[in-house]
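Q: What would this chain look like folded?
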Amino acid sequence: MGKSLTEYLKTKVHPLLQERSWDKILVIGDHQRDSSKVIVASNEKGEKLFNWMRPTVSVVDPSTLYLHVFPGRAYVEHYASIIATYLAFEGKEVSSVKFKCPSQEDCLNVFSRSNLARLGAVDIVVLGYVQGLESLSQGAWEDMSDENMFSWKTVVTAQGYRVALLGCRICFWGDIGGNLVRTLQRLNGAKCVLYVGKLGSLQPDHVPNRTLATGNQSFVRGELIAWQNPLEQYLQHAASVVIGVHTCLPSVLYETHDWLVSNQDQVEFVDPEIGQMAKASLEVGCQFGYLHIVSDNLARNYDRDLSNERLEDVRRDRVGLLSEIQAVLEPFFNGWTSPVPNLGKSSA
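A: My prediction, written as structure tokens:
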């Protein structure tokens, strides 16, 4: 991220960590929003409909602070890296930062305790920038209380399949995304999960916010995961799309120059969760596809990256790309049939 890293860190670090020093900082996987127990960050993106909940903190004693991160191993590691890097930039002691990864059981249970069961049975689930895809479903958002982890809109296709645009108030980073896929299949019977989000590119000609990315291969901890992309035959409807190989990293802070040089010849895209979601889909037997906005470029310094993505011109460019994504999804929904014979067709 180069010179933009400092601004990126300031937007992610809880204000209480920026205001004073702590002898011990422990990052734990614990989704805690009770204001009597934790302090919610004042820099949460409250104006956003989804993906605005951020880690909270609790003061254990005058020298010890806990950072409560949504349960996910990569997310815990990511935030520990963020805090350590921020402290290093501030000339403070980095060794004060420790982290404890949650168990897989804890990572799955947090979704089981959510309001996801109220969604009911669905055939196709769209995750990510669903608030930018509202032309696909004209109904009102359901379960819109801020206390709920999820809200959704649903539509039934001409062939009788139920599609959910699923908005999530937390960030499903890394293995959180994989665990969400597992839960959607187990709890809601999902047969196809589509992810519309953002990622970074390792190729210099991929202009941020003007390029879409997709593919069917991803490296997860060095293992190449390959799957069938259900969107492939509909990509001609998106003029800005590029197909490539993806890789997963637990944190954007690991995207160093040396890492870029060693991966650029075999990889086009990077983010924390696409490969994790694809791997989970193969485990549980459901389809998976992604169609993402390239939000930053690691190989060339463009004016726009993760540090200034709230600017008006960035939002305007992304609206154009979301229109292309909708142009892909509409015929996909109309042509999709359940991969499981005689199962999954919702009653009209």
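The longest strand covers residues 150-156.
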